[in-house]
Design brief:
The protein is built from 10 helices and 15 strands. The protein is of the alpha/beta class. The chain has 2 domains: 2-55; 74-332, TIM Barrel (Alpha-Beta Barrel). The strands form 3 sheets. It has an 8-stranded parallel β-barrel with strand order 7-8-9-10-11-12-13-14, surrounded by 7 helices. Strands 2-3-1-4 form a 4-stranded antiparallel sheet. Strand 7, helix 2 (102-114) and strand 8 form a beta-alpha-beta unit. Helix 2 (102-114) runs parallel beside helix 3 (139-152), helix 5 (186-194) packs across helix 6 and helix 9 runs parallel beside helix 10. The protein is globular, with a radius of gyration of 20 Å. The protein starts with a strand and ends with a strand.
């Protein structure tokens, strides 16, 4: 249950009431809310005089639910860029899987500038399956991305691998990405709940939609209202693609949650040949954003070489998306 308190209730009083009902106190704009388990269906009598409104929930998808907030949240991405809301825009995010060197990032910046794309991705801490694979440049990569932001005005998104460097990612980037392998890390989720920078959470490849959105609830209940969901494919019996992109799940997220939804066809497909078609299918879903892996020379990439588009391929794909977006009343930006 979400319990909205009267405007006259101070924050100190709200904290006191939260302890009484064993709920989490969340400041939603100018309103103090108490969020309890969804098993609670009635207002505790001891706090009734302080309550303005209640939202009874069927599950612990609560702050993210359209039953609580019907409109899709608008999330500020930095440098005047937004995602979600009712703009009708689908935000393109592009860049390499891993930051490798200054020249690679400079070439990526030139590509994005030429297409008026304002959000660059690049991994600095890589949660690899093998300990013998490239693990990322760490703080050195973060500084490269920050320098690129200063030079070109991009908003930067990069991934947190574990809680040991979450503070560095928060400091150097505009959007914090919680990857599929880190989605259950409560240290990361709670740290992201305490910041006021936007957070994009990728769905774990063995995660139900309920579990996925409840990860977002950890961040929302921590006080950070700027959360974005990213579907990047789930593991099924199929072996011919890397994962299976759950567009049915995307339909659920759009219908029942108030969070912006981004799709990642690169990780879902896993192979360059299918990414363009899958991206066009994603665009037709009318989602809030797309995130695509792009590399100047994918064949020599230090991670995920098979699924990164080269710059020519990405230009061709990007040019094809306008008509698809327009057909569902959206615009690619």
């Amino acid at each position: 249950m979400i319990i909205e308190l009267k405007p006259s209730v101070s924050r100190d009083k709200a904290n006191e009431l939260g302890k009484q009902v064993k709920g989490i106190v969340v400041q939603d704009k100018d309103i103090s809310c108490l969020v309890t388990s969804s098993k609670v269906k009635e207002i505790p009598s001891a706090i009734a005089e302080f309550v303005a409104r209640t939202h009874v929930m069927d599950t612990d998808i609560q702050l993210a639910s359209r039953s609580y907030r019907s409109a899709t949240r608008t999330v500020e991405l930095g440098n005047g860029k937004t995602i979600g809301g009712n703009t009708g825009n689908t935000v393109m995010i592009a860049g390499p899987c891993s930051v490798e060197d200054v020249e690679q990032i400079a070439q990526t910046a030139t590509l994005l500038n030429s297409l008026n794309i304002g959000v660059m991705r690049g991994g600095c801490y890589k949660p690899r399956t093998s300990p013998y694979s490239f693990q990322g440049l760490g703080i050195q990569g973060l500084k490269m991305l920050a320098d690129t932001r200063t030079a070109h005005g991009f908003s930067i998104i990069t991934e947190v691998r574990d809680a040991t460097h979450v503070a560095d990612v928060i400091e150097y980037t505009d959007i914090i990405q919680i990857g599929a392998k880190a989605m259950y890390d409560h240290g990361i989720l709670r740290a992201c709940g305490a910041t006021r920078k936007p957070v994009m959470i990728k769905r774990g490849f063995g995660t139900t939609l309920q579990e996925f959105v409840q990860a977002a609830e950890f961040v929302l209940s921590g006080g950070n209202a700027d959360v974005i969901l990213c579907e990047r494919g789930i593991r099924t019996f199929e072996t011919k693609t890397r994962f299976t992109l759950d567009l049915c799940g995307v339909a659920f997220l759009k219908q029942y949650t108030n969070l912006p939804v981004i799709l990642d066809p690169s990780h879902a497909m896993g192979y360059r040949y299918g990414i363009a078609d899958l991206t066009r299918a994603c665009t037709a879903m009318g989602v809030d954003g797309l995130i695509i892996e792009v590399h100047p020379v994918p064949e020599v990439a230090k991670s995920d070489a098979a699924q990164q588009l080269n710059h020519s391929e990405f230009r061709e794909l990007y040019a094809s998306l306008e008509a698809v977006a327009n057909s569902v009343g959206r615009k690619i930006i």
